[in-house]
């Protein structure tokens, strides 16, 4: 297909046959992260102008699905896991283990290419941050966030997510 070589052609610009050909020629890897952790990271990076996490969450919820930033939009709306058959789904928090497996499957020496990842420290830190940030939210905000991310929570195994409760 001629358009496959064009710069910055979006997948949505192709017809179904072309999309199938393009996707079939790649190994598709999806990196996923607990949506509540994504919200915390976005807030801590200063991507919201809110003075508190609670007011930042209010901005996210008020903006809705269509007006939100890619930093906090539900993954299902961005990555279309129901339409695209990903070869690998890599969960944040298990990067060292999963990336090692992925590199070995690609025939690459996993040990020498991976940076030092301390998954257990990251998980502990996010657990602590989640507890702190979650306690700032009203019961209504918690309910609305769980609803906002319901498809992500259904599609991916975020077993320890505060939004799953």
Automatic annotation (TrEMBL):
Primary localization class, coarse: Golgi
Keywords: Carbohydrate metabolism, Glycoprotein, Golgi apparatus, Membrane, Signal-anchor, Transferase, Transmembrane, Transmembrane helix
Cellular compartment(s): Golgi apparatus membrane
Enzyme class of the recorded protein, top EC level: transferase
One annotated GO molecular function: sulfotransferase activity
Superkingdom classification of source: Eukaryota
EC number: 2.8.2.-
Gene name in the database record: Chst8_1
A Gene Ontology biological process term: carbohydrate biosynthetic process
Organism annotation: Tichodroma muraria
InterPro entries given in the database record: Carb_sulfotrans_8-10 (IPR018011), Sulfotransferase (IPR005331)
Recorded family membership: Belongs to the sulfotransferase 2 family.
Membrane-topology descriptor: Single-pass type II membrane protein
GO cellular component: Golgi membrane
Protein name: Carbohydrate sulfotransferase
């Amino acid at each position: 297909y001629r358009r496959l070589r064009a710069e910055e052609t979006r997948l949505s610009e192709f017809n179904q046959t072309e999309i199938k050909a393009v996707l079939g020629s790649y190994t598709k890897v999806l990196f996923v992260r607990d949506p509540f952790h994504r919200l915390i990271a976005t807030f801590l990076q200063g991507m919201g102008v809110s003075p508190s996490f609670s007011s930042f969450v209010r901005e996210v919820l008020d903006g809705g699905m269509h007006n939100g930033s890619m930093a906090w939009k539900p993954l299902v709306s961005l990555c279309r896991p129901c339409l695209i058959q990903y070869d690998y789904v890599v969960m944040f928090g298990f990067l060292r283990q999963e990336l090692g497996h992925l590199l070995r499957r690609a025939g690459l020496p996993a040990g020498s290419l991976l940076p030092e990842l301390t998954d257990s420290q990251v998980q502990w830190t996010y657990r602590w941050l989640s507890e702190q940030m979650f306690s700032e939210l009203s019961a209504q905000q918690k309910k609305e966030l769980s609803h906002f991310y319901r498809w992500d929570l259904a599609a991916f195994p975020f077993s320890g997510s505060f939004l799953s409760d």
